[in-house]
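re: ur question from earlier - yeah i can do the single chain one, its not a big deal. heres the input i used so u can compare w yours
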Amino acid sequence: MKDLFITKITNDKVAAHQIPTVFDALQLEWHLIDTLNWAKEFPYAPNVKFRIAYNDSTLLLHYKVTENSVAAVATADGGYVWEDSCCECFIQPTDDGIYYNLECNCAGTLLLAAGTERNGRTPAPENVLKSIDRWASLGRDSFAERKGEQTWELALTVPFSTWFQHHIEHLDGMTLRGNFYKCGDKLSMPHFVTWNAIQSATPDYHRPEYFGTIHC
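and the output i got, formated as tokens:
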């Protein structure tokens, strides 16, 4: 299992659109999402990397993707964003088995739910979804698939209250578990790549037993 060490930053209030500039100034490390667990059936791997940090109240995420087509068909939060050009962050903040799947397409449309496995998950309340600030380099409007190579970026501010089935006041000294993904189930070239490897017969991101360790 991989280990990820997250930097705490002193910037107390960072909007999503400011994250790339802030991270550049701090020279934060990029991490690759490049593991092809199901290469025989899905051999295509876009170029995907992410940076991550936190402050006193928020987890900050920045993705950068180059792929051979993009799409953002889902029009509202809670939709089928995994069918679009989608980056995902699954986090288990404590040892009680509950993890959160934060999935976001290239237009900043979100899906968020909580539970201990794929089935029976609890969708995030609307106020929680609204608290997550998003910036998308391609804009926030939905669009059908655009073929041809494009590079796009996505940044998210994720308040600790996003983990709505827990009461997380800080991350200092905590050890989380999680994984990071890129997918595009309905794109011309479907793909499923991960940060930490998953050993399953078919693509399945809801596998907390394969989460890596995240040190704060």
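The first helix runs from residue 19 to 26. not sure if urs matches, ping me
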